[in-house]
């Protein structure tokens, strides 16, 4: 069975619609056909200011949401990154392999550091993609299901893996990104030219999957739409409507042409109401299940503990081979 690895940051109280449609939906789909490892990347969350109590709660809520969305701990390995120390260890190796210029070209770093300013940008934010490369290569992942915004990080991972193998002999598996054709970039409802993001200045255009139905219905009803009246998929001329069509198509299970036909002659208001109701109905059970899982804290912690044990076995084996091939002394004889 081929390996899959992906990760998500616990940096918000709830995942948003982009996280689900771009990434988690794929995680669920791949868990039976692949040996899948999915991690909540709490170390990556440390690259920005965190409140310890909030981080703990968000980490637990992230695991609960993954399970509620259909990532099944009996069919894959769900774990928390900081509990497997090999991530930091291989992360350092990746930092020593990557060029400063190469890391400086990462667009996510450039965007985020520009917004925060040099003094508030941590060194961790700079080395973030190298820890991500370690996350992936520790598990010998063949596939990495992610949204479009992670493409460059996976390319960097591939380059580093190839560099390692050329210098030190075949050791690391070179992964491939798996990015959906549609849904890989869900946009902000208020600014359809920008991706939906937890770090957006305003949350008015971000649909949090754990929010109450009425909150999300209101946000969708006030989504920015485009000139004209037609419900038609055209990302250039009608980015707002196209984004809503993408969302409705994925959550409602109908193709975009079928939806265009269904809403021919309808106004934007009716169309938005259909999107709002579909979103609300889709995530209502996820919200209930997440809340329930969070009340069963010891069971949740047991799942996380079991995941760490399974991940540890694979990760420490890769790390030992990496260290040995680089000439670091073995600890046990
Ligand atoms: P993060 O936590 O920002 O996002 C998690 C996943 O959601 C996808 N995503 C989107 N997809 C479509 N439309 C959007 N608007 C949207 N916003 C986010 C992301 O592409 C991602 O797949 N660096 C990663 C976390 C990470 C990781 C890894 C991923 C750490 N180690 C190893 C894969 C493999 C990140 O910040 O994701």
UniProtKB/TrEMBL annotation:
<dbReference type="InterPro" id="IPR050203">
    <property type="entry name" value="Trp-tRNA_synthetase"/>
</dbReference>
<dbReference type="GO" id="GO:0005524">
    <property type="term" value="F:ATP binding"/>
</dbReference>
<dbReference type="InterPro" id="IPR024109">
    <property type="entry name" value="Trp-tRNA-ligase_bac-type"/>
</dbReference>
<keyword id="KW-0648">Protein biosynthesis</keyword>
<dbReference type="InterPro" id="IPR002305">
    <property type="entry name" value="aa-tRNA-synth_Ic"/>
</dbReference>
<dbReference type="GO" id="GO:0005739">
    <property type="term" value="C:mitochondrion"/>
</dbReference>
<comment type="similarity">
    <text>Belongs to the class-I aminoacyl-tRNA synthetase family.</text>
</comment>
<keyword id="KW-0030">Aminoacyl-tRNA synthetase</keyword>
<keyword id="KW-0436">Ligase</keyword>
<dbReference type="Pfam" id="PF00579">
    <property type="entry name" value="tRNA-synt_1b"/>
</dbReference>
<protein>
    <recommendedName>
        <fullName>tryptophan--tRNA ligase</fullName>
        <ecNumber>6.1.1.2</ecNumber>
    </recommendedName>
</protein>
<dbReference type="GO" id="GO:0004830">
    <property type="term" value="F:tryptophan-tRNA ligase activity"/>
</dbReference>
<dbReference type="InterPro" id="IPR002306">
    <property type="entry name" value="Trp-tRNA-ligase"/>
</dbReference>
<dbReference type="GO" id="GO:0005829">
    <property type="term" value="C:cytosol"/>
</dbReference>
<keyword id="KW-0067">ATP-binding</keyword>
<dbReference type="GO" id="GO:0006436">
    <property type="term" value="P:tryptophanyl-tRNA aminoacylation"/>
</dbReference>
<dbReference type="InterPro" id="IPR014729">
    <property type="entry name" value="Rossmann-like_a/b/a_fold"/>
</dbReference>
<dbReference type="InterPro" id="IPR001412">
    <property type="entry name" value="aa-tRNA-synth_I_CS"/>
</dbReference>
<keyword id="KW-0547">Nucleotide-binding</keyword>
